[in-house]
Amino acid sequence: MLIPALPAAWRRHVAALTLSLSALPLAAADAITVADVRFAPTQQLQGQQLQLNGAGLRRKAAFKVYAAGLYLEQHAGSAAQMLAQPGPKRLRVVMLRDVNAEELGRSFLRGMQDSLDRSTFSKLAPSLLRMGEIFAQGKALKTGDGFTIDWLPGTGMVVTINDQILSEPFTEPGFFEAMMGIWLGPHPADAGLKQALLGGSS
Questions:
Q1: Which residue of 24, 39, 125, 169 pairs with 55 in a disulfide if CB–CB is 3.0 to 4.6 A?
Q2: Contact criterion met (CB below 8 Å) for 76 and 53
Q3: pTM given for the model
Q4: What is the pLDDT of residues 161-199, one digit of tens each?
């Protein structure tokens, strides 16, 4: 039995619908699994439901270091779009190998230094030192350990390791932006991970 050809108007409608669907960001109902780490499609933070913006893998040489997922209220395809959102934000990181915590903290400091000019880096020095102290408290982050970096409007930036808040919030203006620059700045630690966090494929 022959199927009659669709009218031209219907063909145009179907083509437009297909194109619009392909251009949509990651659906809120979709979880992402990265190296056996599952990132749920949504998370609750400060009474708001955040959607998984993207998730990917941090590699160093031939090693898989950690998986990371970014949660926002609305999809963001750039760091500027992410920072422009007024609501809470979360970066979730899960370790894929044992890493010395102090060494990881130092790598974060180097990453911020790479993404900041000297003047801004100097202004943020007190918060940078405190961030280093947080990671120096633990001898190592084991495979499967995780930490989150949360931005909470009205409170500041909060760092949690294995569900334990390790310090008072970082309230210094610009520090959360500087911290996120490690992953989403112009000179990210891993360009493939940056692309994945912003909804692309690594």
A1: 39
A2: yes
A3: 0.82
A4: 898 988 899 998 799 999 999 999 988 989 999 999 999
